[in-house]
Amino acid sequence: MSFLLFQSCVVVYLLATAAYLVFFLTQKNTLRQTGRVIFLAAFFLHTASLIARAIETGQTPLTSHHEAISFFGWSLGCCYLSFCWRYAVKNLGAFVSPLVFALMLVAAFSSRSMVSLSPALQSWWFPVHALITLLADGFLALSCIGSIMYLLQEREIKKKRFGLFYSRLPSLEILDKLNHHCLSMGFPLFTLGLIAGSLWAKQVWGAYWQWDPKETWSLITWFLYAATVHQRFTVGWRGRRVAILSIVAFLSVLFTLWGVSFLLEGVHSYAS
């Protein structure tokens, strides 16, 4: 059942992406509404597939690469919909939906085999740590997307050649507010995720920190975002500099999710 729901949501995410991209090119308002409705339908199917997977496996569906990437896509969709509910950011869906669909494709081509945690790692701290961290990654991904949109719009304005993006992207002020909102949500959640992971490690290994490769890269990522938040909220940085820092920090998030999991040996490694 979960596999059928998963396949269905991938197809519906593809339709939502197509609708958003066609709207981006044509700017027909009916397509924007269509894209939003289809994306919402895909999100509900996605939610149902995660619930079904949890029932089938009898554990939180976050232990395998397939499950982690699928939940990352879900968290990005959740953050996007929650943001759209409060704010209007023109054509944000045209940038978010392709990324969600790409994540779902990665999950689709990953093994769906159930991966059980070792008895030593089975703790309620695991779902708390994983859920909070991946939800934080959703907000941080949205911050990165807003930063990319900011740089594209700024480039159009500086060159004074108003092409494809200028009329289709929000103002620099709105995109800067998007970055502000997502950092305000994502960084505290990421911090809570690290704390929950440390408490889990203490329960399992008797120490709060083991310097496992993923722990180390998570800490590097935390420092990158701490620097970004400090420069923005304390020093007063705005615009381009914060956008670039947000993109660099999110690249570290992606390496922590994928690079560390497959390239480096450790307790978080899918390869091992």
Q: Can you describe this structure?
A:
The chain is flat, with a radius of gyration of 19 Å. The chain contains eight helices and no strands. With 272 residues, the protein is mainly alpha-helical. The model has no long low-confidence stretch (mean pLDDT 85). The chain has helices at 2-26, 29-57, 65-86, 93-108, 125-159, 172-205, 213-235, 240-263. The two termini are 28 Å apart. The chain is 76% helix and 0% strand. The protein folds into two domains: 1-116; 128-272.
Number of domains: 2
Helix proportion range: over 70%
Structural class: mainly alpha
Mean pLDDT across the residues is 85
SS strand fraction: under 5%
**Low-confidence spans:** none
The tally of strands reads: 0
Number of helices: 8
Q: From the alpha-carbon coordinates, what is the Rg to the nearest angstrom?
A: 19 Å
Query: Overall 3D geometry?
Result: flat
Largest sheet: none
Order of helices and strands: HHHHHHHH
CA distance, first residue to last residue: 28 Å
Task: List the defining traits of the structure above.
76% helix, 272 residues, mainly alpha, 8 helices
